[in-house]
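Sequence in, structure out.
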Amino acid sequence: MRRNVLNWLSAQLDKLSEYLAHRKGLLPMIGMGLIALNLLFQFLFGSHWIATSNFFLHLGILIAIFGILLAWAL
């Protein structure tokens, strides 16, 4: 059972790696979009927990940095 899950996960990571190898700027663009979305949420939902915690800002920065590092490695 465990070996099947590991084989499936390995196959999915191979597919994702092949997909992202041809689209090196996709993850940084998604990250910048999330950062812009956070800016929009600051004006629309000023007192909501998503706006006050800057959730999309932090998520966008993490995704953008991961995308830059992944593009550099591929």
